[in-house]
Amino acid sequence: MTIPSRSELPDVPGTKDKENMRETWKKVLFIFNPVSGKSQIRTDLVDILEILSAKDYVITCYPTKCRGDARNLVRSRKEDYVYVICAGGDGTLDEVVSGMMENPDKPFVPIGYIPSGTTNDFANSLGIPSDIKEAAKVIANGRTFLCDLGRFNKNDYFTYVAAFGIFTETSYQTPQDLKNTLGHMAYVLQGVMDLGNIRTYHFRVESAEFSASEDFVFGMVTNSKTVGGFPDITGSEVDMSDGLFEVTLIKMPQNILELNDIVQYLGGMAQTSDLVFRFKTSHLVLESDEPVRWTRDGEFAGAFKRVELTNLNKKLKIIVSAEKARQLAAPAENRQ
Q1: Do residues 25 and 94 share a domain?
Q2: Which of 25, 71, 139, 283 has a 20 to 30 Å separation from 109 between CA atoms?
């Protein structure tokens, strides 16, 4: 991404001096979570700043201090930025995106994402490098991709997954120091501990494409090619800008053969399964008789009897490599 020329700068009401606008459009806000992943961001911070400064950007840095900090900062921002950089896990990115949506006075500017969490599902789906310095180079030289964004009920958002049921509590119950020490294995270990607490949830599910009243052990509404570190678990044909979610709902297996049936289907080794419902939709409502705990992008979202999920087509502006931008823009049959 390059600094816009004078002729390319937009007209802003009340602003006639485009040279002043040009100065505004050099500014970026860099928000980072210093404890995400293995705290690698601390080691690479100077390198990141050097990579971005080489592009003539003026950088304002802000380390987050607690949960919700990034969301509050972006929601209340007063200055204009050419884009906002987020360094952290998927939860930190979720906060930045939510804060952007909640700021009535500022437009949604492109977001540069430097993944430094444990699983980084969203970054993997967009081809954003896991190497922190390489991800910074993508921001410095990349292109903006218009990605779908999920709205969770009326006031919350998610970038790639909203889920309930078995394993969904793993990410926010796993201690941060364990995540930092063991990485993805920490989630696996915590998930094994959850197996003794398996239960089902009765939902009435309604969308234009699908309706049911069933007991489910797990459900996820996604816009991602990877969830929980598992590639293609959401299906083989995922378009992150088509205005559609991929929905997966799983019924409780009664024996080891039924469990194997589910695994075979989710792994792409079976064409169908009577225990798994999978469909695409732009809008979905799930209702239950009791509050059910949900996660958004791996973070606890609360307990609800009714959840409404809406796809906001191409609302999220995210920076990817030029090559990846071309791939994502290509017709589905030509993607690699």
Answers
A1: yes
A2: 283
Instruction: Indicate the SS3 state at residue 190.
Output: helix
- Helical H segments across the chain, by residue range: 18-24, 40-53, 69-75, 90-102, 121-125, 132-141, 170-173, 176-182, 184-194, 256-266, 322-329
Q: Which two tokens stand for residue 228?
A: 């929980």
Residue linked to tokens 């995106």: 97
Contacting residues for 197 by C-beta, under 8 A, at least 6 apart: none
For residue 289, the enclosing domain spans 157-311
Task: For residues 18 and 115, state if they share a domain.
Answer: yes
Q: Quick one: 241 exposed, middle or buried, by C-beta within 10 A (0-12, 13-18, 19+)?
A: middle
Q: In this structure, is residue 1 part of a structural domain?
A: no
Amino acid found at 160? Y
Assign 5 to helix, strand or coil.
Answer: coil
Is there a single domain that holds both residue 319 and residue 307? no
Per-residue pLDDT tens for 225-264? Answer: 888 767 777 777 889 999 999 999 989 887 778 777 777 7
> Which CATH number fits the domain that encloses residue 99?
3.40.50.10330
Overall number of domains in the chain: 2
User: What's the token pair of residue 281?
Assistant: 């939709």
Strand partners, 277: 249
In angstroms, rounded to a whole number, what is the distance separating the alpha carbons of residues 116 and 132? Answer: 7
Model's pTM, two decimal places? 0.82
Q: Same domain for 221 and 262?
A: yes
232 sits in the region (left: phi over 0; alpha: psi -120 to 50; else beta) called left
| Residue whose C-alpha is closest to residue 139's, from 52, 62, 81 | 52
Instruction: Give the integer Cα–Cα distance in Å for 248 and 210.
Output: 12
* Calpha distance 101→283 (Å, rounded): 19
Helix (H) or strand (E) holding 289: strand 283-296
Pair (53, 198) in one structural domain: no
| Each residue's pLDDT tens digit, 152-207 | 999 999 999 999 987 665 443 444 443 443 344 333 434 444 445 578 899 999 99
DSSP conformational letter for 15 = B
